[in-house]
Design goal:
Oligomer: single chain
Strand order of the largest sheet: 7-6-5-8-9
CATH topology: Glutaredoxin
CATH class: Alpha Beta
CATH superfamily: Glutaredoxin
Helix content: 10-25%
Structural class: alpha/beta
Shape: globular
Number of strands: 9
Order of helices and strands: EEEEEHEHEHEEH
Length: 178
């Protein structure tokens, strides 16, 4: 049996969303989403090469990853730091950053995901797939991962995210050319 724990930082009430009735720890016998191959990990635990992700939007359409690189943002509706961070992610998307967001809420919590998307006004691509957290070997959310056009990990941060972090800004500039 495989057990995954997604941790979340200090609460900061931003938006009211129905609390999860399930515990934060989920026990699974079979993965919901699997990478096509085992990928080497960065120091710590994050894949140094972008895993194969078959993301589907909330409307059921495939979400292709941008070819010039991508900022992959993992979040959950029950996570206060995620709720605080999503407006920054949306602002970066509106400024042209190649962002794809993934809710890692339980599959039966789709209504919470939809509510969060509406409350934040999230127009960046949104997938709802808890299995991506497993594929990315995520241990805390929010999780932000920046991958190059060559699918190499440039920068990552799990837990609280500062959109003005110099490392993040350098990685973002390298994939956007600005």
């Amino acid at each position: 049996m495989l057990v995954w724990i997604l941790a979340c930082a200090t609460p900061s009430p931003v938006v009211a969303v129905e609390p999860a009735s399930e515990p934060v720890v989920e026990a699974v016998s079979e993965p919901v989403h699997e990478a096509a191959e085992v990928v080497p990990m960065a120091p710590g635990h994050v894949p140094v090469e972008l895993p194969v992700l078959e993301l589907v939007s909330l409307s059921g359409e495939p979400i292709p990853l941008p070819e010039d690189g991508v900022v992959l943002a993992l979040w959950a509706s029950w996570c206060p730091p995620c709720r605080k961070e999503l407006p920054h992610i949306q602002a970066l998307y509106e400024d042209g950053a190649p962002i794809v967001t993934v809710s890692v809420d339980y599959p039966n919590k789709r209504a919470n995901v939809d509510k969060m998307v509406e409350l934040i006004g999230l127009t960046a691509p949104v997938a709802h797939d808890i299995g991506v957290a497993r594929t990315m070997n995520t241990v805390a959310i929010p999780g932000i991962y920046v991958y190059s056009a060559d699918e190499e990990l440039l920068w990552w941060q799990e837990d609280a995210f500062d959109p003005q972090d110099p490392g993040f800004l350098a990685a973002l500039a390298s994939i956007t050319g600005s």
